Amino acid sequence: MSYPVFAVTVDLVVLTVQEGELRVLLVRRGIEPHLDRWALPGGFVHADEDLAAAARRELAEETGLAWPGGHLEQLASYGAPDRDPRGRVVTVAYLALLPDLPAPLAGTDAAAAEWRPIGGQHLAFDHDRILADGVERARSKLEYTPLATAFCPPEFTVAALRQVYEAVWGETIDPRNFHRKATSAPGFVEPTGRSTEGEPGRPAKLYRRGDAALLNPPILRRKDD
Amino acid sequence: MSYPVFAVTVDLVVLTVQEGELRVLLVRRGIEPHLDRWALPGGFVHADEDLAAAARRELAEETGLAWPGGHLEQLASYGAPDRDPRGRVVTVAYLALLPDLPAPLAGTDAAAAEWRPIGGQHLAFDHDRILADGVERARSKLEYTPLATAFCPPEFTVAALRQVYEAVWGETIDPRNFHRKATSAPGFVEPTGRSTEGEPGRPAKLYRRGDAALLNPPILRRKDD
DNA sequence: ACGAGTTATCGTCAAGGTGATGAGAAAAGG
DNA sequence: CCTTTTCTCATCACCTTGACGATAACTCGT
Hints:
The structure is a homodimer.
Chain A (H helix, E strand, L loop, with lengths): L6 E12 L2 E8 L9 E2 L2 E3 L6 H13 L7 E8 L10 E9 L14 E6 L9 H18 L13 H12 L5 H10 L4 E7 L9 E5 L16
Chain A binds a DNA duplex through helix 4.
């Protein structure tokens, strides 16, 4: 049998919310091609490794954390013949959503790793498109799934959850209506009984993520007619 | 540089609606491995070929039609180390939705090709899972996108569109409410001015697909609580 | 020709979700 | 103690939904 030979990589779109802003984990490349340019973290899939396992391994390497909670799912694959000058490389992109970790982000292969705001990037390879696809996937999934909790620590307030939506969607949301929807959607959030302390304003009840897989009813973003 | 070597294939989940039933295009394998077992159509990506182009090529080869209309999108990638006994093969699955073609379905590589009902399959490789993922994607996308029109010929009635939903979702829909939703969602369907003739019952107006990318409001399936 | 059957299309109505907004509760800070 | 801040609950008009009645416009059998 003679069929073309490929290399297969995984690339990661790792998103988090810091200071009310959606940010992506980027690395500065330490090797050619695209030396010194910013890129999504990623690497080659090992010989006997599942795709999802490779994604988890790369995520652990790049964040320096074994499993920081959050969410990891396959995004899409990209395989244009000229996307990598080294040869025929197909990449399977994964989307990760993480809470705001005070992570040191030790770079193993890369020269540097940083959380950067979304937008106006000029990344290596076709990573601009992969990033755009990942952000759009995240925005869309926040509507119909409880995935926003993946951006939050184990216990969080309704306001923190709302700020995730505002950061990811880039729009403001009425706190009163959001509170009604978030607490009434079955399985979205569950009360812990505890409350915040020591912060200005009335103390907020603390919640943890519920066990629903789908949000019913969904929390829709404003459709701009 | 020494990194593992992969082969890359595309596999197709080609769905259509025939006789009010959702069906998938399957081929009987003419070569090892899994000789004589049913499988999704697919094949190796050529050396200088884009993934989407490979999917379109395979679709044209398997259906025997250049471009029968319909819809083609990437589904997901599958790359478990042991999924193909020939070695390390990663497959990029595509989902195609086609109108009911009276297609001969000439097999080029395969021993046979047929439209088969969904369910209770035992396909080669990990194709059972790929098929399940494809069907679920189709079911889900019918809610939020005008994709149901991809199952229809260029001109169709509201009833035909409703029967697509019923076949894909496997549930009955009230014709009156569906008519209201389908005709009121902007950009979903556009009237042609023509009507059906010679069929029993009141003649139905004919529509063609609109230009909307998203269905607003969506057409939701019954949530089974 | 004509009624019966069939299918398409329009209308109505109550229940529930939505956005806009008011108002009270419960803390910190001066 | 009063102001400010933030959280939480309540109200209201509007819209969409599902259930279902009613009518329109054809084919078919006799």
